[in-house]
TrEMBL record:
Species this chain originates from: Labrys wisconsinensis
Domain Right handed beta helix: 167-318
InterPro entries with a match to the protein in the record: Beta_helix, CHP03808, Cofactor-bd_rpt, PbH1, Pectin_lyas_fold, Pectin_lyase_fold/virulence, TAT_signal
Name recorded for this polypeptide: Secreted repeat protein (TIGR03808 family)
Length: 439
């Protein structure tokens, strides 16, 4: 068969102009045109027909006013990035889907129009889908979540989220990757990776850029975070760039075997990187944390938090402030560990309270602080010497320009010793301070 060259070229140009779909031809959408008052019914019909035929639905540029559209598994919708807009009608989601199978969205702008919405709802709500593929989409202007993923796997990649309450809420994930997205101007949180109960999760949160995260909902740390991991085990948070978060850049609560690696972080109102409460296993390595109230905290042995390595991080310019619940001034420390943990190869500078904190009150067990540098900190190390606190080795560190002392013991909030690098630790069995350089 001979294909006429002009027809071939014309067909190719049309495909490129419409987004260049690879695979089955795009499905037609009769009766669906941008600019109408309420196109929900026509939109739902076009999506269902395309999914039934196994073809993607391709939308031209313009605004489509839709709301509450239930799309079937197997749906694929493509638009022109920055030009195809789905604008919410009413307070509910624009799109929702549940069940098995897969779903793909690409090149769409999902615009909530700041319509009233329950904070637990999202512009897009997906449940039980084994393989979502959401790329090059924009989510904006909603008082709720932008994207809700319940029991989903798959990929959210190179999307933009702005002026939403929370960008992504992923709960009980099953093989999910959140990669290369831009998140800016969220009212409460950036990316949430949660589970209903503690267990294996395995979500990857990598290469995202997150900034300007507020805490409009208030609280003592459950809002105001760039990335929050709760109860989800074996989550990897790596090589993200985070800036200007009301509370934490990265907060892992009761998250076992979390890895927080190679993130670049600047300006947070509370603790920059947190592994807290009932966790077992945390690796926090190669991060840069600047201008957070506290730098890195791996704490809450009183709640079962234990087992960690904190290695090769740079922490600079912590600051003191009033506690969120009010009352006394606190914070200003670089790196804190409490139980069954090592901190090695870190550099901490300009932290007014302490470069390193080992334990708190009675909560200290089997920690090693070695090969670190603390410069221009209030004290180099604040270590608890309360009666029940035992098991610490502080060796081979460099302390420079720490006016309060290199290694100083505390009993809860009160200073209890002089500089233990000079006085020795004979009165505190199980605490060894040796071989450090002080100037």
């Amino acid at each position: 068969m001979v294909i006429e060259r002009r027809s071939f070229l014309t067909a190719g140009a049309s495909a490129l102009a419409g987004g260049g779909l690879i695979g089955p031809a795009a499905a037609a959408a009769p009766g669906l045109k941008p600019g109408g008052a309420d196109q929900s019914a026509a939109f739902a019909k076009a999506v269902a027909a395309a999914a039934a035929s196994g073809r993607p639905l391709q939308l031209e540029a313009g605004a489509y006013r839709v709301g509450g559209v239930a799309v079937p598994p197997g749906t694929r919708i493509e638009g022109i990035p920055g030009a195809t807009r789905l604008v919410a009608i009413g307070p509910g989601p624009i799109l929702r889907a549940e069940g098995g199978g897969d779903l793909a969205l690409a090149g769409l702008t999902l615009d909530g129009g700041n319509a009233g919405m329950d904070k637990e709802q999202g512009l897009v709500m997906l449940s039980g889908l084994a393989a979502v593929d959401i790329r090059d989409c924009r989510f904006r202007a909603t008082p709720g979540h932008a994207l809700v993923l319940q029991r989903c796997g798959g990929l959210v990649e190179t999307c933009a989220f702005e002026a939403v309450q929370t960008a992504i809420y992923a709960n009980d994930s099953a093989g999910l990757a959140i990669r290369g997205n831009r998140v800016r101007g969220c009212g409460d949180n950036g990316i949430l990776v949660h589970r209903s109960e503690k267990g294996y999760d395995g979500t990857l949160v990598v290469h995202n850029r997150i900034e300007s995260i507020r805490a409009d909902g208030g609280g003592l740390g459950w809002n105001g975070n760039g990335i929050n991991v709760y109860r989800a085990g074996h989550v990897v948070v790596a090589q993200n760039v985070l800036r200007d978060c009301a509370f934490s850049f990265i907060r892992a609560n009761s998250a076992d075997a979390v890895e927080i690696l190679g993130n670049s972080c600047d300006s947070a109102g509370e603790t920059g990187i947190y592994s807290e409460f009932a966790f077992e296993g945390a690796v926090i390595a190669q991060n840069v944390v600047e201008r957070a109230a506290n730098g890195i905290s791996v704490v809450n042995f009183d709640k079962g938090g234990r087992l960690a390595t904190v290695q090769g991080n740079i922490v600079r310019s912590a600051f003191r402030r009033i506690l969120p619940e009010g009352g006394r001034e606190s914070y200003g420390s670089g790196i804190a560990i409490e139980a069954d943990a090592t901190a090695t190869g870190n550099v901490v500078e300009n932290c007014p309270t302490a470069g390193f904190s080992l334990g708190y009150g009675n909560y200290l067990r089997d920690v090693v602080l070695s090969g670190n540098v603390a410069r221009q900190c209030g004290v180099g190390v604040a270590i608890t010497v309360a009666d029940a606190a035992r098991g610490a080795l502080v060796t081979g560190n460099v302390f420079s320009g720490c006016p309060g002392g290199a290694v100083v013991g505390y009993a809860w909030e009160d200073k209890a010793t002089g500089d233990l690098t000079a006085e020795g630790t004979g009165a505190y069995p199980g605490i060894v301070v040796t071989g450090n350089s002080v100037r």
